[in-house]
Amino acid sequence: MERKSWRRLCTAGCAGLVLLGGVVSAQESGTTAAAPQAAGSTPDASAQVPADVSKKLTEQGEQLDAMRSQINAYTAQLDAMKRALVAQEENYHALRHAVGMDVLDAQRGGNINAAGTGASALPMPADQGDQQAAVKPVGQAPAPPQDDKPPAVAPISDQPGVLTPRGALVVEPSYQYSYSSVERVDLIGYTIIPAILIGLIDAREVRTTTQTATLALRYGLTNRLEVEVRVPYVDASSYTTSREILTGSSEDNVFTTNGRGIGDVEATARYQFNDGGADSAYYVGWLRYKSRTGTDPFEVVTDCVVRCVQNATGTGLPLQQPTGSGFDAVQPGLTWLLPSDPVVLFGNISYLHNFPRDNVSLNILNGGKEPLGKVTVGDIFDASIGVGLALNDRASISFGYDQSLIGVSKVNNKTVPGSVKTTEGTLLIGGAYRLTDKRTLNFTLGVGATRDTPDVSMTVRLPTRY
Length: 466
Hints:
Lipocalin, 12-stranded antiparallel β-barrel, 5-stranded mixed beta sheet, alpha+beta, rod-shaped, 42% strand, 4 helices
């Protein structure tokens, strides 16, 4: 028993020593194999990973820098687009403002003038160079408008609705032809029945032709204030056909008179109150002074062959036609214009006050005098309205109506026999054709709508701006 146990112990010990030797040998071989790697011909994984990550980080950093540059470029472009949008909005509002003023005049029918009584036509549209200078490139805000003019409309009366730009001079020659015919029948006697007259008939017809050549000068003191001077030359003729009263004559007598010379010189100042536009009205106030430089009705010689103080059987008519009214007058007024594409609405109101004259006498044939005393002629209230329409970029046309209410005349504060309040109405048609950027040909035709109004009047103007 003891020997077997000892053998087993020896066998176990030997096996343990063999196992221990194998383990030690394996450790030594592993250590020997690891040593060359550590000494290193090839790097391990732990040494390769940091280099790749660094490279990727470098590449990503470069990409981020490129993206930042692109973002900055996009931001700059966005800011430029914002500035361009703001500039375009300002340019749009400026163009809308200009369309109601001189650009509308340049693109449409030239100059069409506004209504009223008393002055003349208009300045020309702006120069091509001025219009091109007003257009600014996108992204640059346009300069504020230098000229706040209302739009021009085709002239159908003497009162212009467009102010002359500051420093500009407008020279306007014009010619006006007017014809009127008045018939008058006086029944002197009494009637038995409405169809039978016992007495005489005084039938009289007066035909008057007046031609007026006028030179008007307008100058713009500012863009809102202008002054004007008008010098007319008048050539008038009158033909009176009548039969002598208190006689049994069956023949008509024709009494002819003529007169020519300088008429009443006028001076006018106009001021634009507001800065209108394409959607709002313009208001222009004006004040006109009319002198009595022309030959007045009291200076001409009156026929005393038939009907006057010394003799009651003559004509009693002036032997020469006057070229002026004989009274100083002042006339304030207001003109308004409302652009409403494609037309322009306009109107005018005014009041003319004639100053009375004292110690007035008629010059009678053969050196006689007929004293009249204090003479006062009626004041005049005038109102007009119209519409202008552009036909193309050069031609335009306008239509309107003008009405005047004339008061009674008095001598020595007593109403003159036969003097009554009178209403004159005129239908007006006007046209304009722009010849050049500085010159426009205007034409106006007036047709009398009442018996007291001239039957027809025609006016041609040629305003030129310097």
